[in-house]
Design brief:
This protein has about 190 residues and is an alpha+beta fold. About 25% of the residues lie in helices and about 35% in strands. The strands form 4 sheets. The protein has a 6-stranded mixed β-sheet. The radius of gyration is 17 Å and the shape is globular.
């Protein structure tokens, strides 16, 4: 079996922003574009989706009317080569809800819930990409041996475009800035 038999031809060619923007929502679901190349993500587990929903709901409640928190949509990190990431949770300016694509300047926080197989990407690659794009806050949430998730929080240093540690939380995430949020992870 050749690579062409296993995957469509467009998965082996660099995709431009114009090409990607012409695709349907169904074609874009479950993929990310990194340096112009399609990266297929396996479907998330129920536990993964539940944790993302719990986080999004808590962040939405804490954010107030100026911010929205949603799951499962693209953030366009760069146009050339095209890099679209699909974080598990995105907190973005409410006044940009109808602007497509969502850009880093619209985003306050991205959250990645780590799944088996995404550890390196979520711990290293995405951390670097989100920082270079200028996204102010990044959270990485991982399952601990105890079963209660750990939330690693990062804050952007705008001068160096790198993240500094914001703290590690288990059980309950309590963050005061930029808005007060308390998320009980023990129910996830």
């Amino acid at each position: 079996m050749t690579a062409e038999m296993a995957a469509p031809a467009w998965m082996h060619e660099q995709i431009t922003a114009e090409q990607y923007d012409s695709w349907s929502e169904e074609q874009c679901a479950g993929i990310e574009i990194v340096d112009g190349m399609v990266v297929v993500s396996p479907s998330a587990s129920k536990r993964h989706n539940r944790l993302a929903r719990i986080l999004a709901n808590a962040l939405e409640a804490a954010a107030g009317p100026d911010w929205n928190a949603d799951t499962d949509f693209d953030v366009r990190l760069q146009d050339v080569p095209l890099t679209n990431r699909r974080p598990d949770v995105v907190v973005y300016r409410a006044d940009t809800i109808d602007i497509t694509p969502t850009r880093p300047e619209h985003v306050l926080l991205v959250v990645e819930v780590v799944s088996p197989g995404s550890e390196t990407t979520d711990r290293i690659v995405k951390t670097d990409q989100y920082a270079k794009a200028g996204i102010a806050f990044y959270w990485r949430v991982e399952q601990a041996a105890t079963g209660v998730p750990l939330a690693y929080t990062y804050v952007l240093d705008p001068a160096t475009r790198t993240y500094r540690d914001g703290g590690v939380f288990t059980g309950v995430v309590k963050v005061a800035a930029p808005f007060a949020v308390e998320v009980d992870l023990s129910t996830a």
